[in-house]
Amino acid sequence: MPLVEVTLTEGRAPEALRELIHRVHAAVESSLGANPQSIRVIVREVPRTHWAAGDQTLAERDAAQSAAAPAEPSTEHTTEHTTAPPSQEGD
Asked: Which stretches are tagged as biased composition: Low complexity (predicted)?
């Protein structure tokens, strides 16, 4: 009985997870010739606050990257002023 466990950070759409389960199941069936009824797929979703790498949670890393990201360009309209060349009066 093949058992495949997939651990992901939470936040994906249910349809995406269902597609993942389908594709993993199909891959196990075709590559091992396993009985489809005996294949088990477990998807675990972990909050980003509960997953760490290098002693930093993924949520902390996200926050640090957001703080370091350049500010979004202003959406305010600016007016560019141009100066006409001096007039040539009196020539």
From this structure: 81-91
Kindly report the length of the chain. 91
Domain-by-domain residue ranges, the chain? 6-41
**Structure-token match 């560019």, residue found:** 80
The dihedral region occupied by 23, where left means phi > 0, alpha psi between -120 and 50, and beta the remainder, is alpha
Identify whether 2 is a catalytic site residue.
yes
Asked if pLDDT for residue 91 goes beyond 80, the answer is: no
Asked if the model's pLDDT at residue 54 lies above 80, the reply is yes
2-16 burial, b at 16+ Cβ within 10 Å, e below that, comes to eeeeeeeeeeeeeee
Kindly provide the b/e burial profile for residues 35-64, where b requires at least 16 CB atoms within 10 angstroms of the residue's own CB: eeeebebeeeeeebeeeeeeeeebeeeeee
Candidate list 2, 36, 73, 86, residue with the active-site label: 2
